[in-house]
Amino acid sequence: MNNIYNAIQSVGLSNTKVTTVTAMILASSYPPSMGAFPDETVEVMKEVTAFLQQTGAPIMVNVYPYFAYASDPADISLEYATFRAQKPIVDGKFKYYSLFDAMVDAYYAALEQINAGNVSIIVSESGWPTAGNSPYTSVDIAQTYNTNLINRVTRQGTPRRPNQTVNAFIFAMFNENQKPDGVEQNWGLFYPSMENVYQLFEAC
């Protein structure tokens, strides 16, 4: 990141930000206020976030409620995973109606623990597969999740950062038919033929 930053600065791109993408690399994430990085990643994350603080750049994080739900459906409801919970998970003064918010805030809590709470988060990937792991995957669930994701991030921030909207990228544009069979083939909004897997945007 330092090398890229120095290179683009040298050609006058002074307003261009340099960052990196991370997975949800947390040793603990429940409740969200207990979010913490694993011991073996703390020093690296301190170095990364020091660079981001120095340059004013955000960090990018892949946030996938699907994986948490599919691995523990007994304790995580589909409604909570798809932004439809009626009763919140209470964490101190914060109330969580979606697993997405809880995951983002757990990462914020982990940043705070390494004195990097002023680094903002952009969600670099989020989505839901349409097939490959029934009953946890379907077109209807994927459409519900991504529709509610759009509504959520365009409306307000998370309980821990209520005034800071969350920019997010949906994974993925296309189903990837050359990946191994299973969920990995089925995250797209479109088939490789460019037909809709399901309708998400009016213009698509």
From TrEMBL:
Coiled coil: none annotated. One of its GO terms (molecular function) is hydrolase activity, hydrolyzing O-glycosyl compounds. Gene3D superfamilies: Glycosidases. Keywords: Glycosidase, Hydrolase. The keyword Hydrolase applies. The keyword Zinc does not apply. One of its GO terms (biological process) is carbohydrate metabolic process. It holds the Pfam family Glyco_hydro_17. Belongs to the glycosyl hydrolase 17 family. PANTHER family: GLUCAN ENDO-1,3-BETA-GLUCOSIDASE BG1-RELATED-RELATED. This is Glucan endo-1,3-beta-glucosidase BG4. It comes from Actinidia chinensis var. chinensis (Chinese soft-hair kiwi).
